[in-house]
Amino acid sequence: MQAQEAPPVQQFAHRVFLNPAFTGLLSDYSLTAGHRSQWTGAQNGFSTQWLSGEYRFKESKTAVGLTVLSDREPAGGFARLQAGAVYAYHTKLRENLDFSAGLQAAFASQKPSFSGLVFEDQLGSDGSVQQPTAETLDRERSMYATVATGFLLFTDQFWLGASAQHLNNPTTGRGAEATLPPVFQVQTGYRFYVKNYYARNSLKELSFTPTLSYLQQRSFKRLDGNLYTIITPITLGIGYSYLPGGSQLPVSSAVSGLLGLAYKGFKVGYGYRTMLSGQRNALGPTHEISVGFAMADYEKIFKRLGSDKNYNRIACPEF
């Protein structure tokens, strides 16, 4: 694995994949599905699908979740399928400071494909492909387990967290480099409320939320900054991604935008990302769509009296 894993444009729609400590912090229960078409300018590109479900136990400080992730090269190339279970524990540290820790264990299967490759021994004198290759190719499917963990500190407007995926450095094949290196991430953000009130068991608001996230996988690094504007029921977002490159990689950057709509628990979002002009590795834009349903008891969130003080909701966006 020599390539960095690309985070979704709508990272908080798929927040359980970002950090398992997010599980159960936005709703009592939820179900979210998403699809991404990436590198659309390069031979059908690459597609990713997410599916996650969360459930928060009302009489305890715990939550559980399920995740499914699928990566596929549509032309018949690389394919990966991963399914996992998530557990999170939430507790109050101070009057307006909460803590959440999460753990995910997942099982995955992946298989390479060489159907689109042409090797030198297949080429005739006129450049045509004349015969099967004599190259020895490993076409076996590999199966492995992977572990992720993370934590969050948050108030009613601020959050700071860190997470790590592939902590066990799983082996994905026979080669010396056939492993998934750990992915380390840090996330933070702050929600500025211009107007915020509760009416008819729903939240109404006008707010601005800047967020930052940093990702590192081996020598690959990435910094993402986003600004979300929420005017109930609409969420608008703009973002900038910076990849500093390295000794063998050029510096690159991208811009992104998203539009989300949430109404009576249902939500749908669209995200778009494109490399900035002049980049040699610009392979076409990325398109994302997410749909989901979430249910939260806003009466408990706003009143928070007695035992209800255990019910805390993080301030991160939903898309």
Automatic annotation (TrEMBL):
<protein>
    <recommendedName>
        <fullName>Type IX secretion system membrane protein, PorP/SprF family</fullName>
    </recommendedName>
</protein>
<dbReference type="Pfam" id="PF11751">
    <property type="entry name" value="PorP_SprF"/>
</dbReference>
<dbReference type="InterPro" id="IPR019861">
    <property type="entry name" value="PorP/SprF_Bacteroidetes"/>
</dbReference>
